[in-house]
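Input sequence (405 aa), recorded before submission:
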Amino acid sequence: MKVAYFDCFSGISGDMVLGAIVDAGVDAEIITTELEKLNLNDEFSIHFQKTSKHNISGTQAIVETAHEPENHKHSHGPSRHLSDIFSILDCSQFETDIRDTAKQIFDKLASAEAKVHDTDKHKVHLHEVSGIDSIVDIVGSVIGLKQLGIEEIYASPLSLGRGFVRCAHGMMPVPVPGTMELLNGVPIRQTDIPHELVTPTGAAIITTLAKGYGVMPNMTVDKIGYGAGTRDLDTQPNLLRVCIGEKNTIDTKSVGHDSSFGMREQIEIIETNIDDMTPEISGYVMEKLFENGALDVLFVSTLMKKGRPGMQINVLCSSDNRAPLIKVLLTETTTFGVRYYTANRVILNRDFTEMDTQWGAIRVKHGYLNGVLIKSTPEYEDCKSIAEKNNIPIQTVYQTALKMI
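Predicted structure, token format:
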């Protein structure tokens, strides 16, 4: 699985994310060409230049706008609503996933601003993040991450500055309230740097896309990029580092005396017992757990103290996803506590192929024991998608696929 880890030792901003992605190897021309699909070519130009911060080389993304003053972020000039930005995206020629991801980032940002100003997200004026440069930074970052083939994103705790910054609403404490709202529930690190290190745009990008925060996940790094901020800091390089690579889930130690038997990996198991939750909630809780990275979820009927029928919720996950999954259990169920522990598991060596059926392509998972293929299974989600699209029973699709394997 290809992952990206953002090391935010000097904070994060939209242009730093975009610069880091290009520095990690994405062709700047691809970014520039893709951004033409915004249909705003007469309103901005973008270029990337190499720079150095404390003798560390990085890439700076520079967006020049045609109609907005350079200091528009701190002016009281025109601003856009969420609907205006959605309209720009809807009128673009981007692929659906790029457009939808960009919308999620702006929606999260608008929701944070609305909470700060006690209004509806569709009414809030997005002063600091509605400028063309912020739109380009966000959409360009989404494009770049797709070009890199990133499947999961992680980040370090976000380093915060201190002091005040002038915004559309006047002088605001650093981090500004909208940024602080976005960082609710996110690990942060306070510094003595008297500048804004985490911008609303940077906070919106990372809090929307990151699957977890903390130390770098177990991974094999093959690309490293540095995105440069505009300001020079006295005490440290104003850079955002991104590490790209394959996430390691395989324990290279042998299982017994035969490493070819399968793959051994460490997982975590989170458990809680519940006897006072209405059953209708269970399905919703399971969906939320899978959305937050659970590898598997079990609901086991059990008999609890005083003879009360109950259930045990059992969640399998990687250590990177433990925190958000515990949060789901504590907030979405009636439990007052959970327990978790590490376990080893052995899984067959596996790979995937794709086969063509009369309805379209279906992925097939193959399992190997001692290097010998012992089982193959059609992917459920592909079968489900085809069944729904063609209005046919999923069993028809599944059995047809099995016969073709």
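Checked by second reader. The mean pLDDT is 89.
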